[in-house]
Amino acid sequence: GQNIDQPTEMTATEGAIVQINCTYQTSGFNGLFWYQQHAGEAPTFLSYNVLDGLEEKGRFSSFLSRSKGYSYLLLKELQMKDSASYLCAVMDSNYQLIWGAGTKLIIKP
Amino acid sequence: GAVVSQHPSRVICKSGTSVKIECRSLDFQATTMFWYRQFPKQSLMLMATSNEGSKATYEQGVEKDKFLINHASLTLSTLTVTSAHPEDSSFYICSARAGEIQETQYFGPGTRLLVL
């Protein structure tokens, strides 16, 4: 079966750095996405990785290792507004998105 | 960036009535649109994939006669929840993918449905 695993909840301090991990097992691979979802709102696109390595975009970076079926989202200089759920999703061989359950990130002052 | 709108943003209806939700891609043509449902504190669940001009493909367990999907143009898809019941209360989110670009789905803001 297809499976995406990510921690249910994480807590971090304002101004710090946090890494959210995602491991996956899917039928085929056409890229991995990270989305941010604030409570009561739809997800917003953060990043897309299809090749191994690190993609940096401002305070957010995303890493992919296809051989290990592993990705992480790195958030630097955390701000209170970063409190949200972070969803990992993998596009399988049929170009369908397989979603993780999301990681709720709580930022404390 | 690509913008997707949804209407209405929130709807309350009586049990047994039908509700239509519209999803529009405002600045691009979407050959494929997706409809998701999300229950509180749970992840997105894909309900169906809609391609312009053809019948929608429903995920296992989703009743196609209850959740009617129409994708009549490259910028508009509609989801109609027929004979809604309280258990249909949920957050419904559409997303759109532009043309041959397989990578990114752009999400609408979602519609919160409450069936009394």
How is this fold's topology laid out?
The complex is a heterodimer of chains A (109) and B (116).
Chain A: E1 3-5, E2 9-13, E3 18-25, E4 32-37, E5 44-49, E6 53-57, E7 60-65, E8 70-75, E9 84-91, E10 97-99, E11 103-108
Parallel strand pairs in A: 2-11
Antiparallel strand pairs in A: 1-3, 3-8, 4-5, 4-9, 6-7, 7-8, 9-10, 9-11
Chain B: E1 4-7, E2 10-13, E3 19-25, E4 30-38, E5 45-51, E6 57-58, E7 67-73, E8 76-81, E9 90-98, E10 106-107, E11 111-115
Parallel strand pairs in B: 2-11
Antiparallel strand pairs in B: 1-3, 3-8, 4-5, 4-9, 5-6, 7-8, 9-10, 9-11
Question: What report would you give on this structure?
Answer:
The complex is a heterodimer of chains A (109) and B (116). Chain A is mainly β and 109 residues long. Helices cover 0% and strands 57% of the residues of chain A. Chain A is globular and about 40 Å long. The mean pLDDT of chain A is 93. In chain B, the strands form two sheets. In chain B, strands 2, 4, 5, 6, 9, 10 and 11 form a seven-stranded mixed sheet that branches. A four-stranded antiparallel sheet of chain B has the order 1-3-8-7, with no helix packed on it. In chain B, β7 (67-73) and β8 (76-81) form a beta hairpin. The mean pLDDT of chain B is 89. At the A-B interface, β5 of A face β5 and β10 of B.
Provide the descriptors you would attach to this structure in a database record.
heterodimer, A: 109 residues, mainly beta, 6-stranded mixed sheet, 5-stranded antiparallel sheet, B: 116 residues, 7-stranded mixed sheet, 4-stranded antiparallel sheet, 0% helix, 53% strand
- How much of the residues of chain A is beta strand, in percent? over 45%
* Global Rg of chain A: 13 Å
The topology string of helices and strands of chain A comes to EEEEEEEEEEE
Mean pLDDT of chain A: 93
Number of strands of chain A: 11
**Overall helicity of chain A:** under 10%
Main beta sheet of chain B: strand number and arrangement?
A: 7 strands, mixed
Low-confidence stretches of chain B: none
List segments of chain A where confidence is low: pLDDT < 50 over at least 5 consecutive residues.
Answer: none
**Alpha-carbon distance between the two ends of chain A:** 40 Å
Assembly category: heterodimer
Shape summary of chain B: globular
Number of strands of chain B: 11
The best one-word shape of chain A is globular
Going by helix content, strand content and strand pairing, the class of chain A is: mainly beta
pLDDT averaged over residues of chain B: 89
Structural Rg of chain B: 13 Å
